[in-house]
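User: quick one, fold this
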Amino acid sequence: LASALRSQPLSINFRAADGTKINVNNLTSPMKMTLTVEDPKATCAFWDEATAQWSSKGVQTIPSEIPGILECETIHLSIFGGVVDVALRNFVLALECSTVGD
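Assistant:
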């Protein structure tokens, strides 16, 4: 299962005076952000550097009434974006193009 980015990525991090990254995890109050997205089916995710893929762990998608706007809440800081899962979409496209049933 792969995800495709459907917004400009948003990086939110804190750095110490010497430039080293300060990890911020498990916030007691979620931080809210708004992203502009190209796909209405996009959901909130962050770039998981350990797995090199988009993940929704610790990130929640909040329904928005405004087309093209994605509301997100998170309990950690990272690189965020609006993504759509492409495996299902590619499977449906392959199935529609398939001549197996003919």
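User: anything notable?
Assistant: Strands lie at 3-5, 10-11, 14-15, 21-22, 31-36, 43-48, 53-55, 59-62, 69-74, 79-85.
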